Fold this protein.
Amino acid sequence: MIEMSRLRPPLRRPERTIASFPWHAMCIPLLTGCLYIAPVWREPVDLPPEILLPDVGPNEELTLVFQAATETVTVVAQDPEGDHLAFVWQIPRGVVATPSTFEEEGGLTTSRLDLPADPVLDLSVLQVTIFDPSGNDADLRWNLVVP
């Protein structure tokens, strides 16, 4: 006589494994089991750069009064997600100034602009716009006064 166990393997209950689905943990117990609810997908929010220096409030105007032959304007910013930042300085026509930008520890980025005291600058506006790779931006404006 042939034993039945040799013809087919014995039936085994499948082992329980933990599902790796994010909604697995969201089980609403019912009398007959669980009701699983899928989470609502939300796009991650990419925030604009934060300006740390100069410390100004929103819509606060800055004024730069020249007191020397050259004034240095410094801006320190960081991106909340830690992305690299780009600084774009807009200076009035006819003025030659070269900005320098460098990254520091802790995700801070500093940009400096040495601006000569040129009479062309009097009553004009200096602007810097800070961009992250996602296109978010923050900007600052200075009203320039050359005595």
